[in-house]
Write a structure and sequence with these properties.
- The chain is built from seven helices and 13 strands.
- It is α+β, with helices and mostly antiparallel strands and 233 residues long.
- The protein folds into two domains: 143 residues, Gyrase A, domain 2; 77 residues, Aminomethyltransferase beta-barrel domains (Alpha-Beta Plaits), CATH 3.30.70.1400.
- The strands form three sheets. A six-stranded mixed beta sheet has the order 10-11-12-9-3-13, with helices on both faces.
- The longest helix is centred in the C-terminal third of the chain and has 12 residues.
């Protein structure tokens, strides 16, 4: 069985997840908590750590054109997410900034290629940002998610107010965060990015707010199951 210590890339929540009984699954260069605890049943509200999965940012005036040139599905629509054919997501934060979230199977080859192919001398007016280092990644799954967020976030994330693929760049538990709604066929799903240096604190705030609704930490398999009937996150 793979463990985070087998890899140089590790989630900042490793010790917490191990204390919660995490069962690890190996990615190409990291290990992700596939299951947490002994029960395989998904709770009404689940919080999954997706921090080991690949992600990458680009910023600059030429970003959107550079992304389209590389086959990325995206438009210059701030605070809008776009589903990708490989199951990933692209978050357009501004006309000159995007974050690419890799697919849930952990395949980061496409993002690695984009990073490797970037050259300053190409003068595309965009540059890469290593968002895997700077931002922790959580997924919050379940119908009670908007109610949970209402306790720690001022933005109204109810499903009739915050549509699918909408993005909020806001404060969650007094920390800057990016929230994107990317529902599956069966369940609402909110992906959240926050400062990796404060990931443990941020996670504790999420789990504390979720307890009222029967929420707890879950593994990647819960998120994958939610998307099982969809074409990606």
């Amino acid at each position: 069985m793979s463990t985070p210590l087998s890899h140089l890339v590790r989630t900042p929540l490793r010790r917490l997840l191990e204390a919660e009984g995490a069962h690890w699954a190996e990615l190409r260069d990291a290990a992700v908590a596939d299951r947490v605890g002994q029960s395989g049943d998904a709770p009404a509200l689940g919080i999954a750590d997706l921090s080991p999965l690949p992600r990458l940012g680009f910023k600059g005036r030429g970003t959107i054109d550079a992304m389209k040139k590389r086959g990325v599905v995206v438009e210059a629509e701030p605070n809008r997410a776009f589903r990708q054919p490989d199951g990933g997501l692209v978050l357009c934060l501004a006309p000159g900034e995007v974050i690419l979230l890799g697919p849930l199977d952990g395949d980061g080859s496409r993002l690695d290629a984009m990073l490797g192919d970037w050259k300053l001398e190409d003068e595309e007016r965009t540059y890469p940002l290593l968002r895997r280092d700077s931002h922790a990644w959580f997924a919050v799954v379940g119908y009670k998610a908007p109610e949970m967020f209402s306790k720690i976030c001022a933005v109204d994330l109810r499903r009739d107010k915050f549509p699918d693929l909408a993005i909020a760049q806001t404060s969650v538990a007094k920390m800057s965060a990016i929230i994107v709604r990317a529902d599956s066929v069966r369940l609402p799903v909110y992906h959240v990015l926050a400062d990796s240096a404060a990931a443990l604190y941020f996670c504790s705030c999420l789990t504390d707010a979720a307890q009222e609704f029967g929420g707890r930490l879950v593994g990647l398999h819960v998120v994958k199951s939610a998307y099982a009937d969809a074409n990606g996150p």
